[in-house]
Amino acid sequence: MIEINFAKIEKKWQGKWEKEKIFCTQGVPSASGKVNDNSKKEKYYILEMFPYPSASGLHMGHALNYSIGDVMARFKRMNGFEVLYPMGFDALGLPAENAAIKAGEHPKPFTEKAIKNYIRQMKELGLSYDWTKTLATMYPEYYRWNQYFFLKFLEAGLIYRKKASVNWCPSCNTIISNEQAQGGICERCDSKIEIRQLEGWYLKTTKYADELLNGLDKLDWPEKIKAMQKNWIGRSEGTEIDFEVNGVKWPIFTTRPDTIFGVTFMVVSAQHEKLMSIVTDEQKKEVEEFLKNVGSVSEKEMAELEKKGVLTGSYAINPVNGERIPIYAGNFVVADYGSGMVMAVPAHDHRDRDFVRKYNEIKIIEVIKPSKKGFNLELPKNKSFDEGYEEFVNNFVNGKVDGAYTGPGTLINSGQFNGLDNTKAKEKITVWLKKQGKARKVVNYKLRDWGFSRQRYWGTPIPIIRCEGCGLVPVPEKDLPVVLPEKVKFGKGNPLETNEGWINVKCPKCGGAGKRETETMDTFFDSSWYFLRYPDNKNEKKPFDIKKIKKWLPVDQYIGGAEHACMHLIYARFFTKVLRDLKFLDFDEPFKVLFNQGMLHGSDGEKMSKSKGNIINPDEISKKYGMDSARYFLLSLAAPDKPRDWSDKGIQGSLRFIKKIFSISENIKFGKSSEDFISKLSSTTRDVTEFYGNFQYRKATIKLKELFDFLAEQKEVSKEDFGISLKLLSPICPHIAEELWEKLGNNDFISLSKWPKVEKSEKKKEKGVDLNSKIIEDIKYVLEKVGTGKVVYLYVMPFELGKIDTGKIGKAIGKEVKVFAVNDSKKFDPEGKAKRAKPGKVGIYLG
RNA sequence: GAGGGAAUGCCGGAGUGGUCAAACGGGCUAGGUUUAGGACCUAGUGGUUUUUACCUUCGGGGGUUCGAAUCCUCCUUCCCUCACCA
Q1: Of A247, A249, A253, A246, nearest to A430 (Cα)?
Q2: Which of A198, A176, A139 minimizes the C-alpha distance to A451?
Q3: The dihedral of CA A343, A349, A350, A355: what is its sign?
Q4: Judging by beta carbons within 10 Å of its beta carbon (0-12, 13-18, 19+), is residue A160 exposed, middle or buried?
C-alpha cells in the first residue's frame, strides 16, 4: 500500500505558491521576478466574511467555510478570471477584550498572536488568498478611516446622540450587554440590574429603511436571508391617531383603526422616557416599585415575561367618542416603536386580552362581529361549522367568550360605522379622523437607528472632544487617527477613562481644556466597509482609491453564515448606500451574490463548541489524513448550504480515494485513451464544470469519484487526459493535483492552468432505430398471445411520436398501423392500453 | 405568533413529471489477499423468484395527469430565524 507523505507535499506546494505569488492580483512581483499578467482578464471578487480571531484557533467548521470559497476562487482563476480573494481579521471587539483580560494579557498582543495563528492555519489549509491584500481592523491604519467616515457621517447629519434604555449594573458601575444581564442579574457580580436612560451615539439607519427593503428584490441572495431582512426592517402601514393625555396630544400608532371604539385602556412602555411625567402623585410609589422589577432591556427577556402593568393615574381621551381611558405602564410595550404607547382593545387583540385577565377592573367592548368567511378560531369538533359559528358569535358579542377575535367581520358598537366591513372601516375611520386633524396614515419600521457607541476599550475611539465651552467638538480630519492608548487599567468601568494623559486634550475650537470621548465604536462599524478596503489596503491618503473600487467592486460573490443576515449584512448595505450619497461610491449594493454555507456539526450532531468538547482541530486532521482528504471529505458530505456532521470514519473514505488517485498515477500506462474513457472524461468535464460554477461541490465530488474509478479500470490513458482529470480535481485537492501534475512532467502550476474545454453535448446514442424493431417484436408477441385484429393501434410517449416508423412496422407485420400519443384526448383506446405505454415501450391494442 | 426550510434503504444523502428510484459515500454481510490487525480487491445489502423478470416503496390523506418521490391541496412531525412591533 502506498504511504503518502502529505505533510511534505503540502508544505512544498504551499511554499511554492507563496514564493511565486501566484494568487496575487496583477502587479505583484514574485520571488523569481515574474508578475502575473492579468491585464486582459475579467475581474472576479470573491470574499468570505472575515473572522474574529479567537485564541483557540480555527476549527474544522472554519476549514469548511473557507474551502467553499477557495474552490470557487480556484475554479474562476482557471477559467480565465483575474480573481481577488483576500482575507482579513475583525480584530476589535468585546470577546477579544474579555478573553485577553481573562488570560491576564493586553488585548493587542493577545489578538496579534491569534491572528498569526489564524494565518498559519489558513495557509496550511491550502487556501489561495492573496495575502498582500490583508487587513486587520485593530490597527490605526484601518480604524482611522472608521473615524474619517464618522466625521463625514456627522457632517451629513446622519449621526446624532440620544437617550436610550440600557442595562446598568450599580455595583460594577457600567453598562451591561443583554447577554450578561439575563434574568435582570449581573453576570459578573450577581447584583440586580437597573434600567437607566443613557445618551449614546446613533446612526440614522431608519432613513434608509425603505431603500434597504426595496433593494432586496435586486439581489441574488438566498430567499431565506432576504425574508429575514424583510422581517427585521419590518415595514408596516397603519394609522397614527392622536389621543389627548393631560391636555397634550400623544400620537398612537395602530394597524387596527377599525377597533378604535373598542379601546378600553392604554399601555405605555415601562422604558418610555416620558413615563414619569404622566404618573400622578398617588401612583408614583407604585410605578417606581414596578420599574425596579422590570428586569433587563433585552427584548428576548421581555418576550418571556408575564405581562404586567401598573396604573399611572393619568387618562387618555379617545378622539372618536371622548371617553376617558386609563393609562397603564406595561412591561410588554416596546418603547421606541411607534410612540411607545399603544391603544389596547382586549376584545380583538390577544396581548391586550392577556393583560385584562390580571386586571379585571378593565371592561371589554366587542366592536367586530366575526364573519363566517375568514373566521380564524377553532370551533368545537362535534358541531357543524354553521352551528358552532352561530353559537360562538352569540356568546362573543355578549361578552361570554374568553378570548380575542382577530379575524375579519363587521363593526358593532361603533357609532356611525356600525355594519361596515372591518377592512373598509379601517380606511373610513382613518379618513374621518384625518378630516378632523386627529389622525394620519403612517409607515412604521421595526428597524431602529443603530446605537453604535460602546463603553469599552477594544474598539475604534470616537473622534470627539468634549469642551465645556464648545460642547461636542469633532476631531479635525488632519488630527486623525485618534489612536487607542495602550496604557489603560482593566477592571471597573470603561478602561479608557483610566488614561488621564490620553483623555485630556485641548479643544480644537477654542484651545481650552477638553476631554476625549471615551466611548468606542461597535465592531459592526469596522465590518461595514472592510470589503472596500481590500483592493487598496495600503492607501495612507484615503480609505480607498476610486479607480480601484471601480475595478473591483461590487463583490461578485460573498460567502458567510446566516447568523449575519440582520446585523452585518444590513449595516454593510446601509454603509454602501450612505457612501454612495456622499459620492464615495457609484453603486448601491455591496454584495451581488450571497452564499450561505451550512454549519459543520461535531460527530455527535451538535454544534461544535469548546464546552461540548466536540471541536475538530484541522492541524490534527491534516497530520492524519492530509489536508486534501479533509477538504474532499468536507465538501462531499452534503450540499454546501446544508448542515453536516463531522465523522472520523467518513474521512477514511476520502483518504482511500486520494490514495487511489496516487496509485493510479503510479501504475497506469501512459499511451492512448480508450474511446470509453474519452467519452467519460468529456461528460465529467461538462458536469463538474457546471457543479463547480453553482456551488454544487458535493455533486462534483461524486462525478470525480466516478471518473477516477473508471480511470482505475483503464489499461492505458494519454498523459493529456490524465492531466485533464487532475485539473478537474485540483480546486478541491490542490496539493496532490499540483504534485501529480508535476510528476506528469509539467513544470508550471496546475492552479494557473487553463480549465479543460467543455465539449458540447454528446448525447447518448440514438435509440430510435432500435425502438421500431422492438415495437415489431412486441406486436408479434401480442398477436401470438391474443390472436388477430385488422388494425394495430400503438400508444407512445408524446416525445417518441416522431421516432415511430408506421410504414416499416406495417410492412413487417402485414397490418394497418395507427399511432397515438398517450396524451392525445381524441385517441381510439377502448381498453385503456395507453396506460401500458412507457418510454421505450409502446401500448398495443388490436382492433 | 410571523417567516423560511425539510421528511427518500441501517445512516448521510442523489433523483424534482416518464426511458432511471436509491446514484455516491458510510455501515453491515460474505469471499479474496494478508503472519495478524489495518489497508486493498470482488460480490451482496426492500420483497418474490423460474433472477437480462415481476412486485413493493419516497412522512400521512386527498387531487391533477395516460403516467407523480417530483405539480396542487390539507394534515402530521422536525429544524432554523425573528419574536408581546399594537
Answers
A1: A253
A2: A198
A3: positive
A4: exposed
Tell if A36 CB is < 7 Å from nucleic strand B: no
Q: Output the nine-digit C-alpha cell for A477.
A: 480630519
Parallel, antiparallel, or unpaired: how do β-strands A174-176 and A450-451 relate?
A: unpaired
For A15-31, letters b (16+ CB in 10 Å) and e give eebeebbbbbbeebeee
More confident residue, A482 or A821: A482
CA of A638 to C1' of B15 (A): 15
Residues 386-415 of A with CB within 7 A of strand B: none
H-helix segments, A201-308: 209-214, 223-233, 281-292, 299-304
Phi, psi of A251 (to 5 degrees): -75, 135
Tell me: the pLDDT tens digits for A578-592?
999 999 999 989 998
The 8-class DSSP code of residue A465 comes to E
pLDDT in tens, A766-784: 333 456 666 776 777 677 6
| Reported ipTM | 0.80
In this prediction the pTM is: 0.83
Separation between Cα atoms, residue A737 and residue A744, nearest integer Å: 10
Closest of A437, A360, A444 to residue A402, by C-alpha: A360
Residues 279-308 of A with CB under 7 A from strand B: 299-300, 302-303, 305-307
CA–C1' A815–B56 (A): 39
**CB A771 within 7 Å, strand B:** no
Cα A48-A54-A58 angle, rounded to 5 deg: 60
Mean pLDDT along residues A258-271: 88
- Which residues touch A214 (CB under 8 Å, ≥6 apart)? none
How many residues belong to chain A? 847
Say how far apart CA A643 and CA A599 lie, in whole Å: 5
pLDDT, greater one: A492 or A736: A736
- Cβ atoms of A264 and A328 within 8 Å: the answer is no
Q: How is residue A80 written as a grid cell?
A: 480565465
